[in-house]
Each structure stands twice: as C-alpha cells, then as structure tokens.
Design a protein that fits this description.
globular, five-stranded parallel β-sheet, 47% helix, Rossmann fold, four-stranded antiparallel β-sheet, alpha/beta, Isoleucyl-tRNA Synthetase, Domain 1, RNA-binding, 494 residues
Length: 494
RNA sequence: GGCGCGGUACCCAAGUGGUAAGGGAGAGGUCUGCAAAACCUUUAUGCGUCGGUUCGAUUCCGACCCGCGCCUCCA
C-alpha cells in the first residue's frame, strides 16, 4: 500500500518514493522569530508534524530539519541595534517562545537550524552563484539572482516568465537590479543596521538563501520532501529552487508539500480585522492545547480550515470522548459475558482503515472517522460486557496508541502546559480568562484528589450522599471529572 | 486581470456514477440515590443554482451565483 501524497511540483497526487529506501530527508520552512506564533503558523507546523509522524509510523527513518529565520528586515528593524548580539537577544525570546508553543501542541521536534549560524556558508554559496553567472553584485554591494539565467524559473508556482526580458520592467526604486524579477541574495547594510562581515562583503542574507544553504548542508543537494505554508510557493520556494538547482544542476526537493491557509471566523486572519490569535491568546481564553491541536488536524491539510470558537468547543468535546474511551479501555469493568464476541477483528479493521485514510494524502478527517466508529461500537460492547477482556484490551489500546502516535491528543497533560502559559501571562501582564485563573488556582495534586476520592467513597458507603456530592462539587470545580461506577470511583482531569 | 481551491444537515466535516462516513449541538429514552460517562432513537428523498451526458449524478460536462487563496518577503 503506497503512501499517496500531493506534490505541488506536479500538481497531482503521486506515490511517495524516497531517494534512499526506507529513509526520508525532509525540510520545513519554520518561523521568522519576530513575534509570538499565531494559529495560522501552527496550522502549517501541525500539518507537517502529522506528515512527519505518519512517515515514522509507516516505518521510515526520518531526518527532519526546520529552519528558524532569525534575520530579516523586520528583525533588524525591531532589534534596533547594529550589534549582532542584540539581534540574537531579540530573536532568542521569540524562538524560545516558539519552542514552548510547539511543545504545547505536541509537535514532535525536528532538528532546528538557525539562519545566523550559517551566514558564512551563505556568502560562499552566493560567491559560487556569481562565479557561475547566476548572481551579480549591484553597486551598493547587494547581490541578486539573475532569473534570466535559470530557464525553469516558475515551474513550481506554474508561472510563465518566458516573455520576460532583461531590463524590460525596471522599477525606479530598484534601479540597481538588471531585471525587476531578480531577487535579493544578499543585502548591503544601511547605516545603523546589523550586518555580518563575509567574503562577499558586509551585509545580511536575503530571505531565500538560508533555506537553500541549510537544507543542502543537512540533507544533501537532493532530498525527498520540502514543506511549508501555501504562501511560500511563490516566491520563496520558487527562488530556493532557482538558487539550488542553478548551482548544483541537480533536482532539489522531490516532493513539495504545502498546507492551505486557515480562515478565522470565515475571514483571513489579520490584525486589522481583530481576528488575529496567537496560540497563547487562545490558551488564555480557556481553550486547551489538545483541543486546539485536534481542531487544526481534523481538517485535511489541503482544505481551507475555518477556525472558530464554536469549532474549538466541538474539538474539546471530541477529545473528551476519545479520552473517555481510552480511560475505559485502560481500566475496564472486569465482568464480561461468557459467550462474548471478540472486538479484536474490529480493532484490526479500524487500524487498517486508519492507516489507509492517512496513506491517502493524509486524509485526517477520514482517519478520525474510522476511530470514532470503533469507539462507538466498542463502548457499547464493553459496557454490555460483550467482549473478551483478555484478548481484546491490547488490540483496542493498540489502535488508540496508533491514533495518538499521529494525532497526539490523548495524553492528559494540558494542565501543565496551561500552567506555564498562565505563569508567562502573569509576568507579561496579559489578560487571563477569569475561569481559567480560578481553575489554575484551585489545582489539586494527584494525592489531594485521591484523598478526596477516598472521603467520597467513605461517605457513599454510609449513604451520606450530601457529603459525597459536596466533595464531588469541589473536585469538579478543580477540573476533576468524577465517575461513579459499579466497580468504584474513577476520576481524571478534564 | 492571470492562476488555483471550495460551496454537503443547526455547526464542523469525509465521500462516491447507483442512491449520503464521522464528530459537535438539540430532542426523547436506558442506566444512576443524583450526576458523570456510555448506549439507543431522532435531525439532508438531500449534497450552491440552472441546464446537459447517462438506465441512473451529489459525484462527469457547461453556464451562472457565492465564498476563499496566491500573484516579491504573511504559515
């Protein structure tokens, strides 16, 4: 069963093949660290994470590299100092925030590479392009890529530049470019701006060069997969191809993976529309990281996802349902009927459907659907005692663990993640939803909860329901879900 | 203007040339001291509109309406 994956380069779904059998080398364009990551950024990073996790689940060994863009015009401007250390200090803050947010969303960490750690290699790369006639130096010391020397230019974004002639449309502001379409490889410093000394002179890299240099350095001149948001198709990825293939004459990335933008409440997210949310904003409004991740993954990556608060609420309920089932199977009622039907075939079939759905260009919606169908049938069977605990428990858990190896929402660790974001918000003086503040203040340790549960048990034994209910009320207020079953009280964190 | 994507029930959403997965929400019920969880029943003769092809279309074709994206630095 081949993995079918859409390739932007061919505009079709193809059988996924790797250069080296069993190994995947992939690269994703990461964040530009000038601010906190927003929910749109994370749609892409979560989508690539699903891809990464599915490849591993399918048995590939995956070398996955993501860049951190810690130098660009906005960063240089915001850092407000010609001192490189000051720039680094500024970007450290946001790259660390990005790592924390990624962790909150259970994004499996790739190998991170930072642009400013590779400045000299970039200068070398540009010098080689110049030697091949693909780049030229402008009067001010900036370098540009000469698009006219790379005929395939436009093959990824399906743009036709054939009619373009050197010097045909020169922008008055960019008089030093030979052609308006030529893009910057290297920017000469302006007074007061941070810059690096290199063999091609002082300055800072253009946007695209870092990805060509770092991806080829880590993964080789040709590698399997290159990922990013759809907006990167042009010009960023087109330019990466031009630089890389122009220099090596070999195919750069074989598969190009792009995730579609999300909408927020039906509109493109933007600060002016007031629908711009960072991950932290959402957590501080009281939404759980697991629910956010689930919503982000529940719509296949090539479809537009309309991110709404109603949707977040629904995702919260869906995750709850899955966790309830996982808890039930992990700690099931012991009594089963002697003539019970086994659930093992259902588990096997579900796992199969799950893998096939993901294998079909990562159809996450269908994969989730398969899981929920199993959950419904198995819930009914288990509650009726109509299953074989000894032989069925393991396969059912196995399916759920397989699901979680990709979706990563079952593990009950939201509280800790929320706590650290709340702690950050207090220091930064950010607004925190009152209910969230109350819930974090009321938090109980496992031992506290166990003690209260024991008190509940005792009260119930003497049929003192009033006390029992009072304790349950306290626990509920602290975010503890209490279930009274025939075989004792079961609890977990909501 | 160029290129591209989509319009499926109250909401989210998959899917197929033969008659609509799944989740959420709502209503009723079972269970329970009460809850919670779970289960059962229920909610699209219908898949933007109008034509066409076909024995048959939501699925193919055409037109139209609506929404959205990219077109030099926004994931």
């Amino acid at each position: 069963m081949p993995f079918r994956l859409y390739n932007t380069l061919s505009n079709t779904v193809e059988d996924f093949r790797t250069i080296d059998s069993g190994k995947v080398r992939m690269y994703a364009c990461g964040p530009t660290v000038y601010d906190y990551g927003h929910i749109g950024n994370f749609r892409t990073f979560v989508a690539v994470d699903i891809l990464f996790r599915f490849l591993k689940l399918s048995g590939y060994s995956v070398h996955y590299v993501m860049n951190i863009t810690d130098v660009d015009d906005k960063i240089i401007h915001n850092a407000g100092s010609p001192d490189i250390a000051a720039v680094r200090h500024y970007t450290d803050k946001f790259s660390n925030a990005f790592f924390e947010d990624s962790k909150a969303l259970n994004i499996d960490p790739p190998q991170f590479v930072r642009a400013t750690d590779h400045i000299q290699e970039m200068a070398e790369f540009i010098a080689e392009l110049e030697a091949k006639g693909l780049a030229y130096r402008a009067e001010d010391g900036s370098y540009y890529f000469r698009i006219a020397k790379f005929p395939p230019y436009g093959k990824l974004s399906k743009r036709d530049f054939a009619g373009m002639e050197d010097g045909a449309r020169v922008d008055v502001d960019e008089y030093d470019k030979d052609n308006a379409r030529d893009f910057a490889l290297w920017k000469a410093p302006k007074p007061g701006e941070a810059s690096w000394e290199t063999k091609i002179g002082p300055g800072r890299p253009g946007w695209h060069i870092e990805c060509s240099v770092m991806s080829m350095e880590e993964l080789g001149e040709s590698f399997d997969l290159h990922a990013g948001g759809e907006d990167l198709i042009f010009p960023h990825h087109e330019n990466e191809i031009a630089q890389s293939e122009g220099l090596t004459g070999k195919p750069f990335a074989h598969f190009w993976f792009h995730s579609r933008f999300l909408l927020v409440e039906g509109e493109k997210m933007s600060k002016s529309l007031g629908n711009f949310y960072t991950l932290r904003d959402l957590v501080l409004k009281g939404y759980k990281p697991s629910a956010i991740r689930f919503l982000l993954t529940s719509v296949p990556y090539r479809n537009q996802l309309n991110f709404t608060f109603d949707g977040l609420q629904q995702a919260t309920a869906s995750v709850e349902r899955l966790r309830n089932f996982y808890a039930l199977v992990s700690n099931p009622p012991k009594s089963t009927k002697p003539d019970a039907t086994s659930l093992a075939p259902l588990a096997a079939e579900t796992k199969d459907r799950f893998m096939q759905a993901l294998g079909n260009d990562l159809n996450t919606a269908e994969a989730i659907g398969a899981i929920f169908e199993m959950v419904r049938v198995a819930n009914a069977a288990i509650n009726a005692g109509n299953w074989k605990l000894d032989t069925d428990q393991k396969p059912l858990l196995d399916v759920m663990n397989t699901f979680d190896a990709v979706f990563a929402v079952l593990k009950d660790d939201d509280a800790a993640k929320i706590n650290s974001i709340v702690a950050w918000a207090k220091i930064e003086g950010r607004e925190i939803a009152p209910e969230l503040l109350a819930a974090t203040a009321n938090q109980l340790s496992d031992a506290d909860v166990e003690a209260k549960i024991a008190m509940m048990e005792a009260a119930r034994k003497s049929r003192d329901f009033k006390s029992s209910d009072a304790i349950r009320g306290e626990l509920t207020a602290a975010g503890i879900l209490v279930e009274i079953t025939k075989e004792g009280i079961r609890w977990r964190r909501k």
